[in-house]
Design brief:
Length: 204
């Protein structure tokens, strides 16, 4: 009798794998690549695992797949024009899928992601920049609306007074009993004459 297939899937395994690889890198265990980073005279070396770098960066994948294996047990990779702090943040991201950086470094992280062809970091930077832009636009919109409401509230009393004055001025000629009545021939005929109800009491 044939049994049905079932799926065994761990939700925590990817996170555990990343955490374990991160710990191994921090302790320097099983690392098989040294990345030397130099920018404007500042230089630093980082040890890492080829498999992790190759899986997260097409740049490193191409380097490792094309190497001839003549550097001994540990491969050396040299990176110029990459700041030490930025590469440290890049490594933390590829080993943990998250990294905390200052807002003004987001653009630099996007640049290093594009340089090292790291799609995950690139997409993360794009999303964060989009959120930051939307936040700024929302603040500008709220500020603009508050300015408009302040201007409207400051201008509203004079508008109300003007409209009341216009209403009073417009109402006087029609409803003032002291106005001399015109002859019926002089009045414009528009179908409904406002003076007709007033004329009936006069006839009585």
């Amino acid at each position: 009798m044939e049994s049905n297939a079932v799926l065994l899937e761990s939700k925590s395994s990817p996170i555990n794998l990343l955490n374990e690889m991160h710990q191994l890198r921090l302790l320097g265990h099983l690392c098989d690549v040294t990345v030397s980073v130099e920018y404007q005279g500042v230089r630093a070396e980082f040890v890492a695992h080829k498999a992790v770098l190759a899986a997260t960066s097409k740049f490193f994948k191409e380097v490792f797949l094309n190497e001839k294996g003549m550097d001994g047990p540990r491969t050396n990779v040299f990176l110029n024009e990459v700041q030490v702090a930025d590469f440290a943040s890049f490594l933390e991201f590829v080993y943990t899928a998250k990294v905390e950086v200052e807002e003004d470094r987001v653009q630099r992280m996007l640049e290093i992601a594009e340089k090292l062809k790291c799609l995950d970091l690139s997409e993360t930077c794009f999303q964060l920049k989009k959120q930051m832009l939307e936040s700024v636009l929302l603040e500008l919109q709220n500020f603009s609306e508050s300015q408009n409401s302040e201007e409207e509230s400051a201008a509203q009393p004079s508008v109300v007074l003007e409209s009341k004055a216009a209403a009073v001025a417009g109402a006087d000629p029609a409803h003032c009993p002291l106005d001399p009545p015109d002859s019926p021939a002089d009045r414009p005929s528009n179908g409904t004459s406002p003076e007709v109800p007033a004329a009936k009491p006069k006839e009585k």
